[in-house]
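User: Structure please.
Assistant: Input sequence and predicted structure:
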Amino acid sequence: MCRTIIFSIVLYWCETWSLKLRKERRLKMFENRVLRGIFGPKRDAVTGEWRKLHNEELNDLYSSLNIILGIKSRIKRRMGHVACMGERRSVYRVFVGKSEGKKPLGRLRLRLDYNIKINLQETGWGHGLD
């Protein structure tokens, strides 16, 4: 229920997101909050009091992929499709960083292709990417 209803709505079009550490933490907190709502509190065997489930207990109960790995796999799949597109497509030009016009003043923002290279290296697929 959680994966098919809630996460599919939250992750709509997440392939275009640029994941930063702050956003990853907030998504993980959201996932834990949803899972706590689904599984409910747990009664402590020693004291007999009700308490919230710890993150490790939630991970044991919900054995599916976590939300961050799901997003990263969707981004990789989307970038595979974009890499097969021709150079005339604007999506491909944005992916490889061939924009038209002048560059803005100030520090450059993190580009999508840089985030993809980091994601590939984290999962062990980025050997030889520079």
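The longest helix spans residues 21-39.
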